[in-house]
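so ive been stuck on this for like two days lol. basically i have the seq below and the ligand is S-adenosylmethionine, smiles is in there too. i just want the complex predicted, nothing fancy, no docking runs or whatever. if the output looks off dont worry ill sanity check it later, just need somthing to start from for the group meeting slides
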Amino acid sequence: MRDYPLTSTIIKLKTGRVQLTLIKEPDWFLEQLSREDDEGKLYLPYWTYLWEASIALAHHVENLGARLKGTQVLEIGCGFGLTGIVACQMGARVIFTDAEHEALHFAESNAEQNGVRQNSDFVQMDWNTPCFNCKFPYILAADVIYEEHHWTPIVTLLQNYLTPNGIALFSEPDRKNAVGFFKLIRDNGFRYRKSTCPVTLDGKTAQVSIYTVQRMSVAGN
Ligand SMILES: C[S@@+](CC[C@H](N)C(=O)[O-])C[C@H]1O[C@@H](n2cnc3c(N)ncnc32)[C@H](O)[C@@H]1O
């Protein structure tokens, strides 16, 4: 990790808590790391914040509890790693992935400080070019569908890496464009259930939507 000011926070759960090391001044840091891609489009590495969506998904994952025990979980766009850490606490083995190497460093160090490093792996992976030769019964995705150009690669990743009965869990802070992503999900042979979870972060409460996504071929529940 680079030499810059850090801070820490504790996320309280029903069954325990997660202590996270975060970047102290994420706005400043985001600006430092912003860059243009090959087409001149501004790229902002949003991993520098802990997002409400990951807190909501962490609570949801905690509620899955024993169902996760012994399962292999893939987290995409893990950022600081909160959601995957809670999955590890529930007994899963988690592969944390993010396109950003530095985000993975934070996720790994956060896993370490919460005692779940031995149940986890950390892989730098862009969801446009996934690199696994196995499928996963659970895929976790907190706040990764904010830009439309991410949608098709993420749906393709589900098609290729979710087991036939697998469950992908998405969370996002009720952005208008999420409707488009979930239409694409449906058009590609998946169905979903939506629930909401209020999250308070930095004194502000936001509604986060949680989507449980499965293949249409799986019997409904
Ligand atoms: C809004 S942040 C969410 C981070 C974390 N899941 C959370 O909710 O706090 C989006 C995350 O996706 C990652 N990301 C962006 N584009 C990506 C790509 N093409 N492949 C993999 N990860 C990507 C970013 O580095 C960042 O960690």
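The mean pLDDT is 94. The pocket of S-adenosylmethionine is lined by residues 45-47, 50-51, 53-54, 77-79, 98-100, 103, 126-128, 142-144 (CB under 6 Å).
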